[in-house]
């Protein structure tokens, strides 16, 4: 209810159940085939509190080579530490090519991994913001950890999720493309600085985390609604068995 109040106002008979996170009890994300690189957690331990830009676009989003290079240079321009998830072999038939001398220039300030234990990353005190495609799983994981968003939606519901983040919850800012369809270095650097200077967005993200995570506590409406749903399923099944026995 705290996340989607408008939707439940329009449909008052619907019972909210959630948030549900795409991680198991060990905080390992389920439903993907890539091996998590836990070395990024050790790297995060060495970074100042609330300093790291975490960049991850899920398992489907693909940037073209030009946009990839622009993003790489923009992260370099920020002069801030960053953790960047770059899936291998996602630029068509070949891996992305980094700008010349890029890895040498960023040194230990940047950490690039093929896949990250995202829930643990977002829960780490060094993470300042989450540059995301705004898929619902990533959105819920960011919300549940109180992390402000830099929104870069790619397709489908991600644009609606960006609207929630930027316009309704006010826990992030959007990255906009220029006339050629590119999110420029200047746009990325500017929005990073804008977000990290905005204490109201940080406060909103923290407050939303508290409100949302309260929902999953024992005895809260989340559990009550889930139990109502389970009771309804059992009742339907019982009626079906009775009807079948009467035939």
Describe this entry's structure for a reader.
The chain has 247 residues and is an alpha/beta fold. The chain has a single domain, classed as Glycogen Phosphorylase B (Rossmann fold). 45% of the residues lie in helices and 10% in strands. It has ten helices and six strands, in the order ααβαβαβαβαβαβααα. The chain has helices spanning 5-10, 39-45, 65-77, 102-106, 118-122, 136-144, 158-168, 185-197, 199-215, 221-246; strands at 52-56, 82-85, 110-113, 127-132, 149-151, 172-174. Strands 3-2-1-4-5-6 form a six-stranded parallel beta sheet, with helices on both faces. Strand 4 (127-132), helix 6 (136-144) and strand 5 (149-151) form a beta-alpha-beta unit. The chain is elongated, with a radius of gyration of 21 Å. It starts with a helix and ends with a helix. The mean pLDDT is 88.
Task: Please sum up the structure shown.
45% of the residues lie in helices and 10% in strands. With 247 residues, it is α/β, with parallel strands linked by helices. It has one domain: Rossmann fold.
Name a few traits of the molecule.
45% helix, 247 residues, six-stranded parallel sheet, Rossmann fold, 6 strands, single chain, 10 helices
């Amino acid at each position: 209810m705290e996340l989607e109040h408008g939707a439940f106002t329009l449909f008052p008979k619907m019972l909210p159940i959630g948030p549900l996170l795409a991680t198991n009890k060990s905080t390992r994300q389920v439903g993907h085939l890539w091996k998590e690189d836990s070395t990024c957690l050790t790297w995060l331990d060495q970074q100042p509190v609330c300093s790291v830009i975490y960049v991850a676009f899920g398992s489907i989003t693909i940037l073209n080579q030009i946009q990839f290079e622009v993003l790489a240079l923009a992260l370099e321009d920020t002069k801030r530490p960053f953790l960047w998830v770059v899936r291998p072999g996602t630029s068509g038939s070949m891996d992305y090519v980094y700008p010349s001398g890029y890895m040498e220039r960023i040194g230990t300030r940047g950490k690039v991994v093929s896949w990250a234990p995202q829930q643990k990353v977002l829960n780490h005190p060094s993470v300042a913001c989450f540059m995301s495609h705004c898929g619902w799983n990533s959105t819920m994981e960011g919300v549940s950890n109180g992390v402000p968003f830099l929104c870069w939606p790619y397709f489908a519901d991600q644009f609606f999720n960006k609207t929630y983040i930027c316009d309704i919850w006010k826990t992030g800012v959007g990255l906009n493309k220029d006339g050629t369809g590119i999110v420029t270095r200047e746009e990325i650097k500017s929005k990073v600085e804008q977000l990290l200077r905005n204490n109201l967005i940080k406060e909103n993200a923290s407050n939303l985390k508290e409100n949302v995570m309260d929902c999953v506590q024992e005895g809260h409406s989340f559990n009550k609604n889930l139990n109502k749903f389970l009771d309804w399923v059992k009742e339907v099944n019982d009626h079906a068995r009775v009807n079948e026995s009467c035939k």
